[in-house]
Structure formats: structure tokens, C-alpha cells
Specification:
about 500 residues, alpha+beta, 10-stranded mixed β-sheet, 6-stranded mixed β-sheet, 14 helices, 18 strands, about 20% strand
Length: about 500
């Protein structure tokens, strides 16, 4: 008798996943796939992968895939943060001693054909230890954990993505040996030119300049079955916004992961650079935001749990409590909504980005913008705090953790404001250093994500901050906090 594989032994798939995996096997054969990119998201939200030949991939659908713990050890610049060769891997985790292998288990629901690469497939994975236990540092696993708690309450988290990013023409990839950099010291950013002139917000006559590339992007994203909704030109030079249909949170996080990956690869293939860096150091760039539209629905009735049944109120009590929780914990959650040093340069008054934790009805200056109202089935909130470089799984998990705490404590968000930049609401962090200080003091995140994970993220982000402060030594905080530095452009522009 054949011994059950790793996935079956540890009961890691549902019956539906098992059925879908059989269909995947048939697709691999029918489409004559040569390489299947078996991928996962690291703590930064960056996609890592191994490309497997068909027979190896079929084996991974039973036993998972062996991967190194290495991707959990480095900060955004590739600097080694944790030494795996001391007990606990300097993480106080016995399972991490000696840089052992993890098991990456494919999620059949995420399988896609990669349309811009011949004979290639893609599938996203969850990480487990060799004993079948969940890898506690897995960001996708943390979102799954938050969703499991939500589902026990009979609710589903529905999320719509609204993502801004920059497109530039690649002129020089800067691949001379003197320019490529090393671990902890990213190389020179690629040299680029603009794809348009000056301010072009929603300008129809400008479309011929960029239509062909946007068409190629849209064709590929649709072929990947990502729920693309709209494409538009934003205010910055080469700035675009893509939006996606509202879908369940895990699917939305996977969509964001694949969207960023696909956009960067397709644009590079066409001779362009796509960057999801919040504020690139390029002439004419305004900040990119990632606005997260979200609501909760009743899993039994499929009714929107944010809708008010009272004509005198804007949303349900549950909805108001959820908003209040997000506002209360916004500063600690900023490490997950705005995880880069660069992202904090977006929080400016009168900038269409928030600078304090408040909410308003149809007000784009507020951190939380309420859309809809009494008896409107589309009632939902839009959190405008996020940057597009955020890890999708941690961003969404943070919303649930904060919102549900507001529900449990019956918090009151107060009255919505009409002057979001003039209220006395708490100011948002002015830096990543300030944000991790708030996170380190948060009992809520320690309880819900696990103190081990919070300590891990704080050390990871502190490494990033230390390298930044070393690079700007001698400059005044007023100077480097307002201008995009050369360090930020090297660190984030091509990576994100």
C-alpha cells in the first residue's frame, strides 16, 4: 500500500482542494507545461518561487516542496537579520536552528497559467514545518488564522483592491558589476525616462501613448482570471490606478500578490519598469496609495453586515464598532499597512492621503472613508492609509484584528468629520521607527499574531531602519523625512 503523502498525513487540504488538484494534473498534461512556478510570499510581500518540472510538481501536490528558511532571514535590502546557526536561529524557535527546510504546500485554488511565459504555470503555497505544524512566520498563514476567527462569528471579509503604481520606460538596467550591489547594499536603481508629460489625470487624449501596454497588461491579468475592474491614469507622471472587484479576503490578498508580480514582469518584458514603491524619487511623482475597500457579510444570509436598518444612522452598530477598532489601533497597524520608510512621506495634510486616524462620509481626506449609507447594499469602508508595497496578507489581517477588537469592546468611532486635516484625531506615525514603537507596545497584536511573530517583524524592520539611518547620517531629519533619498530609491524602486 502506498504511504500517504505529507499533505494527506497532516490533513492540510479540504476535499475541494483535493478535487481541484486532480484537475490541475490534467491541465499540466493537456497544456504540455514545462515549468510550474511554485511560489510563496515572504514577510515583505515579495514573491519567491522555485520552478518545478511536471513530475516534480505532481509530487509536490502530494508531499509539498522542500524550501529553505532563508527567505525569512533577510530584510528588504537582503541584509541578514537573523543568524540561523545559533540555537533557535536567533528567533527563539527551535525549528529554525541550522537553517532547516520547510515544506511549501501548494494551494490548488491559486493555480494559474502564466500567459506571458511559454508552457508555464504558477501556484501559491503555504509554509509548514517538517512535523506538519503551521509555520508561525507565514504571512498567508496569519491571514488564514484571522479569517478562521471571523468565520467562527458567521462573517466573511469582502475586499476590493484600489492600487496605484508607476510606469517608466527602462533606459539602462544598471547591470555593470560596479552597480549591482550586494547583500544589505542594493545596487544602483535602473535609469528610466517618463512615459508622458506633466499632469495627465484621466486625460483621454493621452491614451494613445500608453494604450498598447495597458492593453497587454489587461489581457494578461484577465487571462490569469484576476477580477480586474478598471484601469485609469492618475495624477503623477506615469502613475496608474487599477481596481478589482470585491472578493473574499484571502482571494483578494492572492490577487494582489499575483497582480504586482504579473505587472512587474510583463512591463519589464516590454521594456518598462513598473514600481509599487510608495513615492519614487522621480521628477513629477506624487505618492502611490493602496486603498482597501472592505465590508463584512453574513455567511448564512449573504447580507451586508455594515448596512444600517435605521434611517437616522449611516451604518450598523457592528460597522461602527469595526471602524472604531481600526482607528484605535491604526498606529500599531501602520507597520503592516505602511511597512517601508518611504511610505510615511505620503502622510501629508491636504494630500488625498490621511495624516491622522479619523473617519468621514465620502471624504477622501479621512483615513476611513464611508461609502453608502442607510439601506444601501453597497455600504462599505475604504481605508486610505495603505501603501502599495504592503504585504497583502498582513495588511488584511491587521484590519480584521483591529476591527474585531472594536466589535468586541463596542468601541465608538465618534462622529464622522468634514475637516479631516483639522480635527483633533490622533496623528498617524511620522516614520517607520515611530510605527514599530507603537507595535511593540500593542498587546492586541501580540495576542492575535503571536508575540514571536511581532518580535520577528520589529527586528526585521529595525534592520531596515538602521541601514537607512547609517546612509543619511549627517543629514537633518527635516531634510531626509521630506525628500526621497538615494537610499530609498535603491532600496525600494525596483524591488517593489
Amino acid at each position: 500500500m502506498k504511504r500517504p503523502g505529507f499533505i494527506e498525513r497532516h490533513h492540510l487540504w479540504t476535499e475541494i482542494q483535493k478535487e481541484v488538484s486532480e484537475k490541475i494534473k490534467a491541465v499540466v498534461k493537456e497544456r504540455d507545461l514545462l515549468l510550474i512556478r511554485t511560489a510563496w510570499s515572504d514577510q515583505h510581500g515579495i514573491v519567491r518561487s522555485k520552478s518545478l518540472l511536471p513530475q516534480t510538481f505532481l509530487s509536490a501536490l502530494e508531499n509539498g516542496m522542500q524550501i529553505s528558511t532563508g527567505t525569512f532571514l533577510f530584510d528588504t535590502g537582503g541584509a541578514l537579520v537573523f543568524n540561523p546557526f545559533i540555537p533557535g536561529g536567533s528567533l527563539e524557535m527551535p525549528e529554525m536552528t541550522g537553517a532547516p527546510n520547510l515544506v511549501a504546500v501548494p494551494d490548488p485554488h491559486t493555480f494559474r497559467i502564466v500567459p506571458w511565459a511559454k508552457r508555464t504555470g504558477l501556484i501559491l503555497c503555504d509554509q509548514y514545518f517538517q512535523n506538519g505544524q503551521k509555520m508561525s512566520l507565514s504571512s498567508r498563514g496569519i491571514l488564514r488564522q484571522s479569517l478562521a476567527e471571523l468565520h467562527q462569528r458567521g462573517l466573511e471579509h469582502i475586499v476590493g483592491l484600489e492600487v496605484e503604481w508607476y510606469l517608466a520606460k527602462l533606459e539602462d538596467p544598471m547591470l555593470a558589476l560596479a552597480d549591482v550591489g550586494t547583500s544589505g547594499k542594493p545596487g544602483q536603481p535602473p535609469k528610466v525616462s517618463a512615459v508622458e508629460h506633466s499632469f495627465q489625470y484621466l486625460l483621454e487624449s493621452h491614451n494613445p501613448e500608453i494604450h498598447d501596454l495597458l492593453r497587454i497588461l489587461a489581457e494578461n491579468l484577465v487571462e490569469m482570471e484576476l477580477p480586474l475592474r478598471s484601469v485609469e491614469n492618475e495624477g503623477g507622471i506615469g502613475q496608474f490606478e487599477f481596481t478589482f472587484d470585491p472578493i473574499p479576503a484571502l482571494q483578494a490578498a492572492d490577487t494582489m500578490t499575483m497582480f504586482r508580480m504579473a505587472t512587474k514582469q510583463i512591463c519589464r518584458q516590454q521594456g518598462y519598469i513598473a514600481s509599487f514603491m510608495c513615492r519614487p524619487g522621480l521628477q513629477g511623482c506624487s505618492s502611490n496609495g493602496w486603498h482597501l475597500h472592505q465590508s463584512l457579510i453574513n455567511r448564512t444570509t449573504s447580507e451586508n453586515a455594515f448596512i444600517s436598518a435605521n434611517s437616522s444612522t449611516l451604518m450598523s452598530d457592528l460597522g461602527k464598532h469595526f471602524v472604531a477598532g481600526i482607528l484605535k489601533h491604526a498606529n500599531a497597524a501602520s507597520v503592516f499597512t505602511t511597512p517601508t520608510i518611504n511610505g510615511y512621506k505620503r502622510f501629508r495634510p491636504n494630500s488625498l492621503a490621511p495624516d491622522r486616524a479619523g473617519w468621514g462620509l465620502e471624504n477622501r481626506g479621512a483615513m476611513i472613508r464611508l461609502q453608502g449609507g442607510f439601506d444601501d447594499p453597497n455600504t462599505h469602508i475604504e481605508n486610505r492609509i495603505g501603501e502599495p508595497a504592503a504585504n497583502p496578507y498582513l495588511y488584511m489581517a491587521s484590519q480584521l484584528i483591529c476591527g474585531l477588537d472594536g466589535v468586541d469592546c463596542k468601541l465608538d468611532p465618534g462622529s464622522p468629520t468634514e475637516e479631516p486635516y483639522a480635527t483633533e484625531n490622533p496623528a498617524l506615525p511620522r516614520s517607520l521607527l515611530e510605527a514599530i514603537s507603537y507595535l511593540s507596545q500593542s498587546e492586541l497584536f501580540g495576542q492575535k499574531m503571536g508575540q514571536q511573530f511581532i518580535n520577528f517583524m520589529i527586528k526585521m524592520k529595525q534592520s531596515e531602519i538602521n541601514r537607512f539611518l547609517e546612509a543619511v547620517a549627517g543629514q537633518s531629519p527635516d531634510e531626509y523625512s521630506k525628500q526621497v533619498t538615494d537610499w530609498e530609491q535603491r532600496e525600494y524602486f525596483e524591488l517593489f
